[in-house]
Design a protein that fits this description.
The protein is α+β, with helices and mostly antiparallel strands. The protein folds into three domains: about 100 residues, Roll (Outer membrane lipoprotein wza fold like), CATH 3.10.560.10; about 70 residues, wza like domain (wza like fold), CATH 3.30.1950; about 110 residues, Roll (Outer membrane lipoprotein wza fold like), CATH 3.10.560.10. The chain has nine helices and 18 strands. It has a six-stranded mixed beta sheet with strand order 15-14-17-11-12-18, sandwiched between helices. A five-stranded mixed beta sheet has the order 7-6-10-8-9, covered by helices on one side. The longest helix has 14 residues. The radius of gyration is 28 Å and the shape is elongated. The relative contact order is 0.12.
């Protein structure tokens, strides 16, 4: 099932992601092992392709049949080695699981420990094959996406995007940091499909955080409204997003509350003059609070900036 958060944040890619399966990797691997009749011992192991090589940080389960004292779960060290009882350090980085099995078997034979050992290595975590998904996603982290993963696979694995996710997604390659690229997700599903690029092991995917403008006070739908990455938002544009003013709203004492250098600053605006086109519209910035007081009460004018911001930032966030 496709992650709902991804679909909600980026409706344009709904059709692209609909056919994808975002089941946990361990569950997928368990299905593969069940089909091959490998039993419950492999239910938590990843399906290992012969083309995948071990690397530092990978977690493997080593089993020597008939010798459980030599078996165990091992983490490949930064030097690319595992420590096997009796055998000692064995370098496995750069080897496939099958090659590592044969290497350990040969070491057990050459050391005179076992005559005919049967070694099996299951890969539980391909940390060296992981893709880091950070920023505005539900579950930031490193995900071992095997095969030929694409961008939307990584977003789905991370639980989808949050309500604060922007259109801009940056991809940085571990081996070539300067060769990364930036993607601005399109509203066109066909273009979004073309933007579903392939990822490589070690890539970092960073989902940007979109700006928010809060409209609070005597408006019909108070809330936070998303500023798309490529959009500017003005006072006259923000008010319709909040469904306009209530009949009891006052066009006097309307103000923008903005944070500068850690302090809240009050910017009075002449809303009546702006609405009559007698004064220029004012551009809003990220995290601004546009506060419209109630004409029937003077208490609104006496509210502290902190209390207004506290109430405004607790409102629901709406995407445009």
């Amino acid at each position: 099932m496709v992650c709902c958060a991804v679909l909600a944040s980026f409706p344009a890619i709904r059709d692209v992601l609909f056919a994808q399966n975002s089941a946990p990797i361990s569950a997928v691997a368990g299905a593969h092992t069940a089909e091959n009749g490998l039993g419950s011992d492999r239910d938590n192991a990843l399906s290992t392709s012969p083309d995948l090589h071990l690397g530092p940080g990978d977690l493997i389960e080593l089993k020597v049949f008939g010798a459980p004292e030599l078996s165990g779960t091992l983490r490949v060290s930064g030097e690319g080695e595992i420590t096997v009882p009796l055998v000692g350090a064995a370098k496995v980085a750069g080897l496939t699981a099958e090659q590592a099995q044969k290497d350990v078997e040969q070491r057990l034979i050459s050391g005179g420990f076992l005559r005919d050992p049967h070694v099996n290595i299951l890969v539980k975590e391909f940390a060296s094959r992981g893709v880091s998904v950070l920023g505005e996603v539900t579950k930031p982290g490193i995900y071992p996406l095997l095969g030929s993963p694409r961008l939307f696979d990584a977003l789905s694995a991370a639980g989808g995007t949050t309500s604060r996710a922007g259109k801009k997604i940056s991809i940085v390659h571990r081996d070539h940091p300067s060769a990364g690229n930036v993607i601005l997700l399109s509203a066109d599903p066909k273009q979004a499909l073309a933007q579903n690029v392939f990822l490589t092991p070690g890539d970092t995917v960073m989902v940007s955080r979109v700006g928010i403008v809060y409209v609070s006070g005597d408006v019909k739908t108070p809330g936070g409204y998303v500023m798309n990455n490529d959009d500017n938002l003005t006072v006259l544009q923000a008010l319709p997003l909040a469904q306009g003013l209530n009949p009891t709203a006052s066009t006097k004492n309307v103000r923008i509350i903005r944070r500068r250098d850690g302090k809240l600053v009050e910017i009075p605006i002449e809303l009546k003059q702006i609405m009559a086109a007698k004064a220029p519209d004012i551009a809003l910035e990220n995290e601004d609070v546009l506060f419209v007081p109630n004409s029937a009460s003077k208490s609104a004018a006496r509210k502290s900036l902190e209390s207004i911001v506290q109430v405004a930032t607790g409102l629901a966030i709406y995407r445009r």
